[in-house]
Amino acid sequence: MASDKEREQKLLEINHELLGRQLKPVKKLGDVARGEVELLGIKQAPAIERLPAAIRERLEALWAEEKAYLDGAAPAMAPDVVAALADFREREKDVLGSQIKEIYDFAAQWFTIVRFDAAFAAGKTGVQNMILNANGAKADGVVLAVLVNDRYFALVKQWRATMGRWMIETPRGFTDKLDAAKISGDLGSVQLGDIPFGALQRELGEEVMRSAKLTQVVYLGNRAQNTGTDTATPPRFLVKLKVPDELLTAKFKGSETLQDIKVFLWDMMRVEAEMGAGGAIEDDLTVSCMQAALAFIESMSKMQKKPY
């Protein structure tokens, strides 16, 4: 069993690797003696079996010359061998000696999958997979409940290939400015351009967004995205916008079928109904954010009615 010092060092080594890739650090290794899943290190796989044949042959030759020098069988390494090894180790960050760390960043603009060797209860060992957001070292993105004119929540229709159908969701995206303002307690400094409206901004159009006024931003807390595999705990915000009613009427006039509509403006009762069984809102991030926003609005309403 590892000592506390050894465990601390292992955690530092893992997080050094993750932070070097701009990924969120692991908070705790876990302790199998306490019934927790204990991370033993980033899973390793033999590099020789994973590299293309031409690169593998070249590396084997380089390593053979290096080994001969280190074993004292050769007085020195040729300058071109020294340069080639240095160049390879500088460029190929995944390769350490004869091993490749199992870090899958084929979709690194969105997420990275890291595989850890892990110890489980009853003496079993196996693999723990983690999904880390591309921007997770700075923030996990934000989820927005956008309230327009204090009457309508704005939701967007998104095609989700994972579901094979259109989903109705709250806007979401990445913004370091909003997260930094939340941390510093200075949400009043946030500007309209700091909010990642994403598809909502695109569908409402330039004229509507240019006329929109940001009246309030409220931090609603963080919620874990998927505790089984995902490290993300995105914050949720209530964002209030003031938009001229005539612009909204003109924008949505003639959008009479579901195929035409990409933005829904639903009042609070409609949102609550659509989050129920069989409703149109099925996305967990959306449900969590909207429930928090509705609870906040209700609490503010009760406070305003309360006599002092």
What does this structure look like?
Strand 8 and strand 9 form a beta hairpin. Helix 3 packs across helix 4. This protein is 36% helix and 25% strand. It has 308 residues and is α+β, with helices and mostly antiparallel strands. The strands form 3 sheets. Strands 8, 9, 10, 11, 12, 13 and 14 form a 7-stranded mixed β-sheet that branches. Strands 1, 5, 6 and 7 form a 4-stranded antiparallel β-sheet that branches. The protein has 2 domains: 130 residues, no CATH class; 164 residues, Nucleoside Triphosphate Pyrophosphohydrolase (Alpha-Beta Complex), CATH 3.90.79.10. About 3% of the residues have low confidence. It is elongated, with a radius of gyration of 26 Å. It contains 10 helices and 14 strands.
What's the helix and strand layout?
Elements: H1 4-20, E1 38-42, E2 44-46, H2 47-50, H3 53-70, H4 79-91, E3 95-96, E4 99-101, E5 103-104, E6 111-119, E7 125-133, E8 142-148, E9 152-160, E10 165-169, E11 172-173, H5 176-184, H6 199-204, H7 206-211, E12 213-222, E13 235-242, H8 245-252, E14 263-266, H9 268-274, H10 284-305
Parallel strand pairs: 8-13
Antiparallel strand pairs: 1-6, 2-4, 3-4, 5-6, 6-7, 8-9, 8-11, 9-10, 9-14, 12-13
